[in-house]
Design a protein that fits this description.
- It is a single chain.
- The protein has helices spanning 3-13, 156-189, 198-218, 227-252, 262-292, 308-341; strands at residues 32-36, 39-46, 55-64, 71-81, 86-97, 99-105, 110-119, 143-152.
- The protein is α+β, with helices and mostly antiparallel strands and 343 residues long.
- The protein has two domains: 31-152, Macroglobulin (MG2) domain (Immunoglobulin-like, Sandwich), CATH 2.60.40.1930; 156-341.
- A four-stranded antiparallel β-sheet has the order 1-2-3-6, with no helix packed on it. A four-stranded antiparallel β-sheet has the order 5-4-7-8, with no helix packed on it.
- Helix 2 runs antiparallel to helix 3.
- The longest helix has 34 residues, at 156-189.
- The radius of gyration is 27 Å and the shape is elongated.
Amino acid sequence: MNIPALMAVSLLLVSAAPAYAHFEHFSHYNGRGEGIGQHYVYEALEPDYSSPGEPTAIMFSVQDHDGHDTYDLETMVEVYASSGERVKAFPWTKQDVGDFSIFYTFPKVGSYQIVLSIADGPVNINTVDAQRRTLSSVVGCNCERVIFNVAISQGFGTIYNSTLAGAVFGSIGIFGAVLGITYWSRRKSGKFVTAPGDIMKYVVMLAAIAGGLVHFAVYSGHASLRLEYSIFLIVAGGMQVTYGVLYTLLTLTSSTSGRDRPQEHYRKTLAVNLFGLVGTAVLLGLYAYSVTLPPPLSPTGQPEHLDIAGILAKAIEVFMIIGIVYLMLLEKRRMSTYMKEHA
């Protein structure tokens, strides 16, 4: 089954699943969801790993228990320090839609409680309710309240992102080193007949594996928009890794670059390269579409934002297309020369 077919199947299997929080990315830290009366509330911070003194967006996505949007909510937001002291209160505000954000700068490192109140009766818009004895108290308030715990730290985001980047690029580096050592050891042994394009084969293999690992690294960040997006990224990454592994096996098992059985080798490389070429072209086309127009099933109705991971993955894929086309033309030229010599 080719990549487009697998993508279609993966989307169809979960097309009935409701959307999660309508955030631009999945929160790895300081985000969760909880039921409150007839609503289900998702909360997240932007940036995820907020530092003291840094302007932070406190984001909410209020839905019903079936995952549908909500409208015309009256809400109040409070921020409490770990001591129980209320350090900030945002007055009652009418929200036209359940997806909204407020902005706050946390003063210092530590734990905080963010309290969202949703009115279920008359409230005074643009006012703040009096201090309550406990975080969960609804005394004197026609409302229901939900509490979210968040941690404000210094440098944790850098540690997380560095660890993730190390896992991705470390794996790529190890795989590339193994390919390089294998190539040079076989060449030095005299059992491996080199030919134009051999190094390009190894570079394309490495690029395919790298593109797949990037997709694996970012798939979870899209789950809050649509679960289908994460499934698609997993499938795309899996297909890229599969192409890289297939081409690696095909290259390493042909000790003479296919010249012992050139016709069989050509058929195999053609099939594998077409698999990689078509799949990569589809991924590039879908990405270009998603950053220009709202992608299919988008709950926000907005195009995707450009980010470093996406640009990196697409740059790798552009290189892959160039490399695959080069290798296909080279293999075709070799096959034509062989056929003329043995005509």
